[in-house]
Sequence to fold (926 residues):
Amino acid sequence: MPMFIARRLSAGVLLLFVISLLSYLLLSLPDLDVARQLLGNSAGQAAIETKNHELGLDRPVMVQYTDWLAHALRGDFGTSWFSGEDVTQAIMNRLPVTASLMICVTLVTAVVSLLLGVWAGVRRGAVDRVVQVLGVAGYALPGFLVTLVIVVVFAVQLRWFPAIGYVDLGESFSGWLSTITLPVLSLSIGSIAGVSQQVRGSVIDVLRQDYVRTLRARGLPSSRIVFRHVLRNASAPALSVLGMQFVSLLGGAVLVEQIFGLPGLGSMTVNYTTRGDIPVIMALVVFTVIGVVLINLLVDILIGWLNPKARTA
Amino acid sequence: MNEGEGRVNAPSTVRRGALGRLARNPLGLVSAAVLALIALAVLLAPVLVSQPPDASDLRHAFAGPSGGHPLGFDSAGRDIWSRLLYGGRTTLSGALISLAVSLLLGVPSGLVAGYRGGRLDGLASWIANLVMALPAMIVLLASRAVLGSTVWVLMVVLGVLVAPAFFRLVRGIVVQVRGELYVDAARVSGLGDARIIARHVLVVVRGPIIIQIALVAGIAIGLQAGLEFLGIGSGDTPTWGAMLNEAFQNIQRSPALMLWPGLALGLTSGALVLLAGALRDVLEDRTGGGSGRARRRAVPVPAAAPVPADTVPADPADAASADPAAAAAEDHGPAGRATLLSVRGLAVGYRLPDGSDREVVHDVDLDVAPGEIVGLVGESGSGKTQTAFSVLGILPEGGRILRGGILLDGQEVVGLPERRRRALRGGMVAYVPQEPMSNLDPAFTVGSQLVEPIRVRLGLSRKQAVQRALDLLSLVEIADPERTFRSYPHQISGGMAQRVLIAGAMSCEPRLLIADEPTTALDVRVQAEILELLRRLQREHELGVLLVTHNLGVVADLCDRVAVMREGRIVETGTAEQVLHAPADPYTRTLLEAVLDHVPAREPWQPRKVVVP
Fold:
C-alpha cells in the first residue's frame, strides 16, 4: 500500500508539472499585450517596455516558466497583474468557500446515492423505476438550468433561502447553512443522478455474481449478503464514478458560485480569466489539479481497501 | 435491464429488428421526434419568425405574446420566439463542432491504442487521463483568455476536452474484442490489421459509439449554454445560454423570461439523453460485445431449443407420447426406502416480459437416498442446473417453481416461507458450484468467507469458528490451512478454490450435497483429485449427493444411479450400470456415443439431432 500511494503521488506530481508547463506555454502563446491593457492606449512605447520588463515579460517563455515554477514550489504564486493582490493570499481567502461547498456536495452525494442505489438495485420494481427516472432527469438537464430553477422556486418564489451571498462558517453556523444549502442542493442533484445509477447498476451486477448465489446457498440472510458482500463489492465502481464526478463538480461550482454570488474559487476563475492574468490563472489551474489528484488518490486508496485485488495492480 | 437472453432471434432480422424496436420504444421515438422538430424549427428560422432576433424596441420590453410574436418580448423588447430559433442555430451547430472534433480525435486513437496495445496504448491512455483530470469549465474559461471569446473556437476546445469519452469507450471495447476468439481466427487466417479492424472491430464499437454521441452532444450543449450564461461567447449572436443570463438579470421582475430558453435547453439535452438510453436498449442487446454484460451473466438460463419460437412452450401431449414416461416412473428410487430428496412433478418457469412463463423444466421426478450418489446428466441447457437450483431454493431472478413438490428429508419445501427455507440451506442441503473462482467473494479472505456462515448458522464464537474453518480446510486436504485461510481468492489456484468451496459446503454438516459440474472448470489432474475428495467425504459422512454433470465418465466413476435430462425432461433413470450399458432412450445412446473415441468429440451445434423413431 505505501508503495502504491507513493507511485500515485509521483504520478500526480508529474501530471501537475506537465499541466502547469502546458498551461504556461498556451497562455504565453498569443500576444495579450498585458502592459497596454494595464497602462491604457495613451501610454507611450517606453512606458510599455518598462512595464513589460517589470512583469518579466521581456524574457523568453521558458525562463519565465522556470522562474514561476521556482516561486510556485515555495508557495509563492506572485501578484495579480491587474489588481496587485497577492495570489496565494487571494486563493487562501476563497478556498474555504469552495472547499466547504465541495465537501458538503460529496458527502450528500455519497450518502443519498448509496441509499437510493442499493434500494433500487435490491428491491427493483416501482422504487427502481422512480430512481431511474430521477437519474435520467438529473443527468439530462444541464446543471446550471437546475440551479436556476432552484433559485426561482426556493429563493424568489418561496423565499426560504437568500438568493445570493455567503456567510462564513466561523461567523455564524445558521447563516452559513442558509447560504450554502441551495448551492449544495443544486450541485448535488446532478451528481446524485450519476452516482446512484452507478450504485444501482453495480448492485444489480454483483447480485448476479456466482458468489452471491453460493452465499445464499450457505443459508446466509439476504440482508447480511447485501450489506456485507454486495455493498462492499459494489462500492468500488461507485467510488470511481464519484471521483470522476469531482472534476465536473468543479466546473459546476464555477456556475453555482456565480449564480449564488459565493466568493469562492469558481467565481474567481470567471472574474480573473478574462484579461489573461497569468499569475492568477496559473495558480487556479494548479490548485484545481492538486484537488483532482488528491481526490483521485483518496478514491484509489479506498478502492484498494475495499478490493484486495486492486491493491496489487 | 434487458431480460431478453432466452429469446429466439434469427440473425437475419437483427438489423430490421433494431430499427423496429427503436420505433416501438415510445421514449426513443418521442425523443427522436422532439429532436427532429427542434432541428427543423431551427433550420427554418427565417421563415418562422416575423422579426430578426436583434431588432429591439424598448416600448415592447417585457410585453406579452401578440400577433406574430407568440412568446412575447424580452427586457430589451426583442422577439423571444425569433431569438429562441436563431439561438438554437448557434447552440446546435456548436454542439456539432464539439462532437465532430471529439469523434475525430477519440475514435481512431481508441481503435489503434486498443488494438495495438503496448507503449502506444500506455501513452494514449496517459494523455486521455490527463485531459480528463482537467475541469472542462475552468479550461474553457482559461482558454477564452488566450483564444478570444468566439463560440466556435471554444467549441473546438470543448471537443478536445470530451474526446477521452470516446477514446476510453472505444479502447475498452477493442481491448476486450481483441482477446476474443473470432479476432484470433481472423488473424490466423491472414487478414491484415486494417481489415480486421474494419470488419470485426468496428461492428462491435458502432453501437456504443452511437449511444455515446447522443450523450456527448447533450453534455456539449449543457456546457456551451453554461459558458454563454457566464457571458462568454459572441455578444451579437443570440444563444440560449445568453438568453438565460439576461432572464436571470431580470429574475425579480419577470422570472417567466427563463421559461422558454430553459425549456428549449432542457428539452434538447433531455431528448438526447433519453434517446441515448433508448438506443442502448436497442443496440447493446444486439452487438453483444458492447458491454460484456450479456456474456457476464452468471446464470445459465437454458436457451430455448432453436426451433420456431411458437413451439417453445412445450406441448404436454406430444411430450407424453414421446417419452418412455411409464417405464421411467417405475425406476424412481427403491420403494419404501427413506429418501433424503424426493422431487415430484417439478416444473420451473421464467417470467417473460409479457407476463407469461416460459417453462424450462417439465414434470421432473427425482430421488436421492442417504449415502447415494445420483448423477443428473444432459447437455447444457437441458435444465439440470435449474432443477438443482430449485432444490436449493436459489433460482435466479424471474425464475420460479410452477408446479410439483420437493421433499427434503420428508419436509415439503415448495411454498415454505423464505426464512424457514433458508434454515435448510447450508445445514440440510449444501451446494458445490461449477466455477470455483467466481464463487468466492473477491473482497474477503478465504477464512472470513468460511467463518461467516459457521458463526451465523452454528452460532459459534469467533475463536471456535476459526478453528472449525481450519479443520475444514484440512478435511479437504489443503496442505497449509493457515496460509489458505489468510489468502484472498485471487491468490489461490482453481483446484484450491474448489476445495475451499467444498469445505464451505461441508461447514454446517449437510446431509445432502448438490454439486453442479464440480470439476468442469478444472484441469484433468485436479478433476480426479476433486472427485476422489468428494467420494471420500460422501463415504465418511454418509452424504446423499446429487451430481449435476454432462460428463458420463464422471457418472461411470462415481454414481449409483443416473437420471438423464433433455430439454427440461427426465428421459431415462436407472442404476448407473443399467443406463450406461443398456440405455433405453435413444438420446442417452447419442450421449454415450459422443464419448466413444472414434466419434468426433463435438459436432457442430445441432441440438435437435436426435429424431424419435
